[in-house]
Amino acid sequence: MRESRDHIKSIETFHAPAERLSTERIAKQKENLEAFEYLKTIFNKLPINAAIINRERQIIAANDSFLRTLSISEESEILGLRPGEAFCCKYSELSPGKCGTSEYCVCCGAVNAILESQNLKETVSRECLMYIEQEGVTRSMELQITVSPLAPKDQEEFFLLVVEDISDKKRRYALERIFFHDVLNTSGALLNFLRFLIEEKETAGTDAPLLELSKIAQRLYEEIVEHRDLISAENNDLSVNIEALHSDMIIEEAIQQAKVMDQAALVQFIIEDKEEIAFESDKVLVLRILINLLKNALEASRWGEAIKLGCKKEKAHVKFWVQNPCVMSKEVQLQIFKRSFSTKGNGRGLGTYSVKLLGEKYLKGSVSFESRPETGTVFYLRLPIIFPMPAH
């Protein structure tokens, strides 16, 4: 059973106050609430995930729907916990003060909704992109958090916390928007080039335009396949095709594909430390990851800047990297791999998420990054040289 701790004082926090009430105080607050029997009955019949929290953000009551969502049967298992702790948010364990006190919590929609509702004394709703880690497995959830102040009793403040899982809605929305954005851009280029070809049909040397038309059509096909595969990956039914590969050839092909992207002519692509390393993986997925990273680097770069791509051997792994001069803000760094998060506006935000999903879940590697003034931003893809086939 997950237990609440005694009252904590003077613990360092990066964001929300770390102090919490003791088990005895929590029990007393719950007793005060249960004096209103009719309220408890209505609360449990609500068809939404609802909990009541105190000023210290600790749960003092939760309805049946909330407990079912957490897959627990007894309310006592979460009394005194904060929302992130109850949901097993991976960031709630990074700081001694737990939920709401790590540097990642600065960007958390849940704790910020609670703090804002406490300060404004009104209902506040925020989206929360939560990483949940249970039994070594990490999954992403998008939640709609709504917090409303309740009338204080005996000078104690309580707040109604409503949690709605909007993961499916957000995923469908993002996939649809991204799909139509990319496909319409490429098909638009195809249409414009066809118009150009019609205008130039009487001139000699039409092989070059036809070649360019072929490249655009190929991009359109690849983008449709990429979105299809991303949906399959999200649904856990993407198949991998493992084959023998060479890192230098992968890099060359990734660069060639990147050079036909929009605005690619405005930057320099530089290959550095290109080692020839034989390894086993899915060529399509490896290229897709590197091309996504190159696309992100291109969007972050300015005219004349250099984008670098390289690889080297690290023990039993091959390590690729993509570097651009831009430095990401701390806020962006803390959310970079979250699904639906994007610096490009609404309806975007699956680039780095898909990179991590494909690289780690399907290629059995790791994806990481660093971003600082001395180096700019560098994304790393680390893959096993010998692909670990599942045991039958």
Automatic annotation (TrEMBL):
Pfam families: HATPase_c
Alphabetical list of PROSITE patterns matching this protein: HIS_KIN (PS50109)
Catalyzed reactions: ATP + protein L-histidine = ADP + protein N-phospho-L-histidine
Single biological process term from Gene Ontology: osmosensory signaling via phosphorelay pathway
GO molecular function annotations of the record: phosphorelay response regulator activity; protein histidine kinase activity; protein kinase activator activity
Alphabetical keyword list: Kinase, Transferase
Histidine kinase domain ranges (all copies): 178-387
EC number: 2.7.13.3
InterPro entries from the UniProt entry: BphY/WalK/GraS-like (IPR050351), HATPase_C_sf (IPR036890), HATPase_dom (IPR003594), His_kinase_dom (IPR005467), PAS-like_dom_sf (IPR035965)
SMART domains: HATPase_c
Protein name: histidine kinase
SUPFAM superfamilies for the chain: ATPase domain of HSP90 chaperone/DNA topoisomerase II/histidine kinase (SSF55874), PYP-like sensor domain (PAS domain) (SSF55785)
Organism encoding this protein: SAR324 cluster bacterium
UniProt keyword Flavoprotein, yes or no: no
Highest taxon listed in the record's lineage: Bacteria
